[in-house]
Inverse folding.
């Protein structure tokens, strides 16, 4: 007859595998419920990329204008 320690190790091992099995089942069930991607997500992404490009251009122009104004606003050396 196996000793108590060996039986306890086997119970912990079997319980661990059962827990992993159940957790994997719940995870797979959750993945099946969610749609992979929204139907209009690609269109929205393209629109947002366009808006981002426009904002980047505006920031670039603003930075150049600000640098020009700062350059002219410096006190001339005497």
């Amino acid at each position: 007859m196996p000793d108590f320690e060996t039986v306890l190790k086997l119970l912990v091992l079997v319980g661990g595998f059962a827990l992993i099995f159940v957790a994997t089942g719940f995870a797979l069930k959750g993945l099946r419920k969610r749609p992979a991607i929204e139907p209009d997500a690609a269109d929205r992404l393209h629109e947002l990329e366009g808006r981002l490009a426009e904002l980047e251009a505006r920031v670039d122009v603003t930075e150049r204008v600000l640098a020009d104004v700062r350059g002219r606003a410096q006190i001339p050396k005497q």
User: Anything to note?
Assistant: Residues 1-34 form one domain. The chain is about 80% helix and 0% strand. The chain has two domains: 1-34, 38-78.
